Every structure is written in structure tokens, then in C-alpha cells.
Amino acid sequence: MIMQTQSDVKSGNPVTDIVIGEYKDKCIKEGIDFTYDFHYPKKGVIDAFAMSIVLFNALQNACEAAQKTPYGYASLKAFRKKNAYIIEITNSCTGRIDSEPGKLLATDKDNSQAHGYGLKNIKRIAEKYYGGINIDSTDNTFKLNIMMMLE
Helix, strand or coil for residue 25? Predict the structure, then answer.
């Protein structure tokens, strides 16, 4: 049975519409304030499947972290700066998350053998498009920037 979803998300690509719509619905259901300003790049070479992996993993992490806070929020933005396409995900979190320069954060889930691949996948895809990721955390706020080159 194929399940069809109706979403008001119009990002410019049906694959990213589904991923964003799924996490928008999930956040609303969990009482998390979810905002987005995401437009799939019209020009460039970023594969929709690769983009969906990036969005799925980043939004899953953001929603899971926001669920643990009293006033949860998650925000997705994307914009183009010359040839760079930048995705910015900001969410509430508990405390401050410190990471060592050049190292990805470790999973905080119980079964670390089965988890902890999301940021690795995001980083791998960003690097495939000659970009990278940057993590910034302040008290109760986590921000993930993902940069990919379009040309």
C-alpha cells in the first residue's frame, strides 16, 4: 500500500517537500515550534536524494534535541551565497554542546553501535559537493551549518 501525504511545503522539489513536511508534522505533534524557509537550489548539481539524506538526518537530530527542552523549537533555513548553498538548522537543546575541533559529536543514544551516523552522513555529502559542516552551540541553542558548492 502506498501512502500519499498532503503537505503545504513547497520547496521546489517533491522529495525535499516530503522530508520537510514529515518533520514539520512531527514537530507540531510534539509541541515543537517549527519554522522553515527552504528552497531547493534551482541551479547546480545537488542530487535530490543526497539533499533528502542531509535534511532527514539534520531535522531528526533537531527534533529529538528540541523534544528534551521545555520550549522546543527547530528552524530550517537555506540560502545561496555566490556558488555556495548553505543550509542552517537551529534548535533548542539542553545546556551547551561542546565538540572538539575537527571531530563530530558522539551520539547520546543508548545503543551507540546502531546510532551516530547522521552527522557523518551529512558531512560526507557536504564534502562530496566540496563543502563542509560547522557546529555552533551556546546555552540551550544548537546550530548546524551545512555548505555545499553548486558549481
Answer: helix
- Domain ranges, ordered by start, for the chain: 14-105+114-149
Under CATH, what is the fold of the domain 14-105+114-149? Answer: Heat Shock Protein 90 (3.30.565)
Instruction: For 43-102, write each residue's pLDDT tens digit.
Output: 778 999 999 999 999 999 999 999 999 999 999 999 999 999 999 999 999 875 655 555
Rg (CA), the chain: 15
Cβ partners under 8 Å of residue 81, min gap 6:
none
Q: How far apart are CA 54 and CA 68, in angstroms?
A: 22
- Give the strands of the sheet with 141-149, arranged side by side: 33-37, 73-81, 84-92, 141-149, 132-138
C-alpha cell at 131: 563543502
